[in-house]
Design brief:
Layout (H helix, E strand, L loop, with lengths): L6 H5 L5 H16 L13 H11 L8 H39 L1
Length: 104
């Protein structure tokens, strides 16, 4: 039985078997956590879906991992700040409604 995608086509996309396994595992975890898929899949399992994405070139190893980590941290910080701002606006609205209710 031949597995699709084949290891040969996958190794054309990544530098080593080790890198392939790490990339596949990370992408499979992302897919299981609810990450948006980059294509339609023929496979059901997330590990095979990750391999399909690697084969098609939609998922690659980032050329500079430190830059990627910094970008992920910046995105998380931005989301945190947006959430804090939203909570602040809600609290202000609640305080204003309480104040308006006491005037009546």
């Amino acid at each position: 039985m031949m597995l699709k995608p084949s290891i040969d086509t996958l190794l054309d996309k990544v530098p080593s078997k080790y890198s392939l396994v790490v990339l596949q595992a990370k992408r499979a975890h992302e897919l299981e956590a609810g990450a948006k898929p980059t294509q339609e899949f023929t496979s059901v399992k997330s590990t095979l879906r990750a391999l399909e994405e690697i084969e098609s070139g939609n998922v690659i190893i980032h050329p500079d991992p430190e830059d990627k980590r910094a970008a992920v941290r910046a995105k998380i910080e931005e989301e945190r700040l947006l959430k804090e701002e939203e909570e602040r606006k809600i609290k202000e609205r609640i305080a204003k409604e309480k104040e308006d209710g006491e005037k009546i």
